[in-house]
Design a protein that fits this description.
The chain has 181 residues and is mainly β. It has strands at 8-14, 24-26, 37-45, 48-56, 63-69, 114-115, 122-128, 139-143, 161-166, 168-171, 174-177. The radius of gyration is 15 Å and the shape is globular. The site of copper (II) ion has 6 residues, from strand 5 and strand 8. Copper (II) ion (CU) is lined by residues 67, 69, 83, 141, 143, 158.
Length: 181
């Protein structure tokens, strides 16, 4: 079986006001100040992917719900797309994203909910049982809720989108933007 090689993804940036070219942007500076920094890596290992998020400059002593989303960041938060799912919920639509815990869960999506310290910095890690090959997330999105809901009908929900960081694929021969397909 000729397996496609698993992709390493990475993103790093200081938040700016949304503009046509920004890859790290805030949609709500009251919760995600301009200049705060997001850094994320997705490293494949065999059949799983290790993800790590580091934040700084956010509000102190606060939880933030964070997930991988399908598209690269856009000035319009809705265009960042729904959560990336390894197995896509067949019932999900553009208007009604997946809230079925069978699909909207931290083993089928990438959840990186983080809690900041007294300085507004924090780190979170997760390992998901899949890798990215021909398909992968385009961004991570930070939400207003302090943690992601898990109940049926609410699963995956986390309130308004307050910041976004675009991911790039790390190739042996350089970095290639994602989410422009
Ligand atoms: Cu999200």
């Amino acid at each position: 079986m000729a397996a496609q090689s698993a992709v390493t993804l990475h993103g790093d940036g200081a938040l700016t006001e949304p503009n046509a070219t920004s890859t790290a942007e805030t949609y709500n500076p009251a919760f995600a100040p301009v200049g705060s920094r997001l850094k994320v890596t997705f490293n494949p290992s065999d059949e799983s992917t290790n993800a790590q998020l580091t934040v700084s400059g956010l509000l102190p002593n606060r939880g933030y719900a964070v997930h991988a989303h399908t598209n690269a960041c856009s000035a319009d938060p809705a265009l960042d797309g729904p959560h990336y799912q390894n197995r896509i919920d067949p019932a999900a639509t553009r208007q009604a994203p997946s809230t079925n815990p069978e699909y909207a869960n931290p083993r089928n999506e990438v959840w990186l909910d983080v809690r900041t310290d007294t300085t507004g910095s924090g780190t979170s890690r997760t390992t998901v049982p899949f890798v990215f090959t021909d398909r992968g997330p385009g961004s991570i999105v930070v939400h207003e809720a302090m943690q992601t809901a898990i109940e049926p009908g609410q699963a995956g929900k986390a309130g308004a989108r307050i910041a976004c960081l675009t991911l790039s694929a790390v190739q042996p021969n350089g970095v290639e933007p994602r989410g422009s397909r």
